[in-house]
Amino acid sequence: MIKLDDIRRHAAARPDAIAVADGATRLSWTDFADAVDRFAAGLVARLPEAGPVRAVFLARPSWELTVALAACATLGVPCTGLDPTQGSDRLEALLGTLDPCAVFVDPRYRPLLEGGTRPSGPAPSWITLDGTAADGTEPVKRAPAEDAPAEGAREPEPSETGTPKASGAPRTEVSFRRLSRSEPLRRLPEPLHRESLGVVPGGQRIAVRRAATEGRGLLGLVDEFGFDAHDTHLVAAPLWLPLSLHLARTLLAVGATVVLDATQDAQTLAALVTAEHVTTAVFDPGTLGRLLADPASAPLAHLGRLRCVITPGRHLGRWTVNAAWERLGPVLHLAYTTPETGLSAILTPEEGQVCRMRTGRAVLGTTITVLDEEGAVLPAGRPGRVAVCGHHVMDGYLDGEDAFVTLDAGAGEQRFFVTDDLGVLDEQGRLTLTGRRSGVTPPARDHALDAALFRLESDLLNLPCLRDTAVVRVSLPTLGDALVVPFIAVAVGREASGHTALRTACARRVPSVPAHVIAVDHIPYSPMGRIRTAELLEAVVPIITLNLQLEQTVHQEISA
Question: pTM value?
């Protein structure tokens, strides 16, 4: 996140301009600087003198979280966002790996952290982002807080406010409001670290980036999208999503206004785009789909201000591209991004009209190449494993695992991160993803079948008659080895035509595996753009099983 020195620079140039807007709370650059200064002063007193100094947050976008992230950046404390949908066990494992000294937590997510055990050692401070809105005209004036000590009363010691943990170590707790009442820093301390950390979904690996690399990546984003101080940027994706956090940091760095939304409500978002004169935005796929499907988004294309919307695009299809063009204008950029590679490739609005889904060109400052099984660079048109080099790519994993190779892709020897994605580059340098090398869930690995399933899903995503679809291979007692293919029709009453199109495509691409095609109202996505397979199957498999039982009963009655 942006540092206090940069905030003060913007405050000196444009003291009354709005830096952060969150509902009724509007922080000018002057207010933002004061809030970060005071919070950093309160936080620094709670940092340990030795050992790893790291923080994590488990919270939705808010002005309090933005202030906390800016304070951490000022102090050089890496602050890593955690996905609250991971479940308590995985969150506990991540906390054990990161060993944070501070945890910024939204009250709604506290139950996910309660009762967990921790390794021996100092327990972290829990800083509760209590969600108390500041005054609309003077957002950071400090009213007496309920948890503030009375005049003349002593501040409780950490041991007095701690809650015993299962390991026996005390946990200190303090509210955001209390830390924000600290006296401003007399001088900025030397940053403790010059790195940032990011969690890789599906495992416990942590990606590490040095500050210098982040700076070059920031410049690359500004050059790519032309961000400047006249922009108003809407954050409609969780800040633990690396793409969302990097874009918010970049827009604040150039002096733009950042508008935060935690509702994920289509009508609220449409109203924000209009009322705040939004020019750029980042959406997670689920939120974008709800916005495009809601009538409230229909007038947005006629506003003429929105120029750039970015969303992870691995599973988004033709309907999303077409609906975005109609309802938002020619603004939608589908991003190919991972925690390790950062933003690597984009499919621009114009390219989205002529290219297949899961296609994109490398962003500025990034080189993408495709490797064979031996690690040699393949020519255009040959499929292989995707490797990425550039300013957005991580420096390594926290545990030291190395996934880099040194290659000459035409610009001298460079260090490339080798991903688990499979793809092919065309003569124009556009990358089309064709599969995954690992992380596939079929019960029996069959690479030819894996590739066929990926091609099938790509074909379906390019059908304009579907709003959304997914292809999941399962092995269940009730269904056997089969495909589950849920879909959302492009409109009410079009389920029959969508059902026919999908069954035909499945029979053509993967005739060896029976396909159960079913119309649904919702396909669950993570903010990273990954389909939540377990949640999806839990909803549709009972319906498919019941339909099969009814069909069997009908056949038996006819036979009798």
Answer: 0.80
